[in-house]
Amino acid sequence: MMDVIAQFMSDCRTASTYHEVEAKFKQAFRVFGAETGTVSCLGSTSNLLNSLKVVGSPDSEFVRNYAENNFIRYDPAAKKSVSTLSGFSWDECRFESRDDPRALHVLDVADDFGYKNGFVVPIHSGLGNFSVVTFTGDHLELNPTTRGCLHLIAIYYHVALERLMLIDTAVSKPELTARQKEVLRWVSAGKTDWEIGQILSISEATVNRHVERAKERIGVRTRAQAIVECLVNGIVSL
Amino acid sequence: MIHAVTSANRNLYANQLTAMHKMRYHFYVAQRGWSDGLTIDEDREYDEFDRADTVYLMNLTSDGQIKSTFRLMPTINDYLLDRLPQFVNGPIPRGNHIWDMTRWIIAPSFRKVNGERYSKAHSELACGLFEFAATRGITHYTTLMDTRFLPAVEQAGWKYELLGLPAEYGDRGETAIAVIIDAGPESLAHNRMIYDIDYSILFESPPPRLGERIEDVLARLNVIETIEKISDREARMATWGGLTTQFSAA
To answer: For this UniProt entry, which residues form the secretion signal (chain A) (predicted)?
Structure first.
């Protein structure tokens, strides 16, 4: 069990594409009885209630339905997720909103779509972003161990997505060449120059030159700083 | 500057220690309603881990105000995880080279403001923490922290292992997780790099002479506040250790 978590942590640190992170994410949460995992609203806390951004979600009828009916306005889980710091289940929401028919309706619709119970993890990242990761499943047994494991999976998934998104933001700026951006992505995934050379079929020295040029343009001394720059503010021109 | 407040120099920091216990009362008792195992003395909070072998790292302004603090103690004696073994999956870490950290506080006026990557009060303390490790040969720090800080620890690139799963503490549904953090020289180098602090920031006062106050000790040892008096980068590069000679632009 701790092995699954440790493996997922390490996968998240080294993943270089969304696809890769998502595949590992699915693999990990299934071990704990969840069938879907959704991350919504990677943004700052204030945006939550007016922008539901679904990243890495299973493509489902429910998500469309949710958006069309503007369920975000009544969803008790969405409301609770901005006011709490720990994970909670839909059952807890159902109990807490027992006097609010519109809130209950959202949960009932979810139920109709086969999402019987959900476990919701609000995440406040160290970089000021906020997301909510929701796991659902018919046989989701929310004992303390499952809750703990899903909580950790949610955290490392968020951190990996945030890393990739921030690099995207940074690398979408035009000042770096396509090759420099590509090389930096691999550097951020912890690859050595030699390994990157193997991946891109170029020499180690060429990889090094790309990194050095990129560092010059970003104006930092070390490659770690270059990555931190991309990761932390996403405004550095890459 | 980060001051290491030990049993040998504690009497220099009477005011700060009182202020720290008041802050702890405010954060843990008044705000979060903690009471188990705590000793409350009016508006100050103490517990069994405020002991002779406890070291407080205090990030102080040049006029002695607390910006942030951590409490550290060696794990050869009982420590927090001995009281809360449910957070540890396996044997409880123990050894001369493993210290535990608790009671992490950043004073409200020194917390992160909008748009800031890190609170300076925190990044300085983090560097002081790993510098302190070097002075004692500490290889690892254990800590039980609120799970909500885990993303930040991961994103700061600290090397650590999880000691168990997040589990509930207190009665407000919050969860905490125990971790063991690498405290070797690489960690110090890493923290200095990410927080852009490339000078020594830790000060451990020797036992004072009779009647000396902390400012007297600093003057006697010719210790100059690195951060607040010398801000520009080149000036900082001219500093060496916690002891600096005054830098002139000429």
So the answer is: none
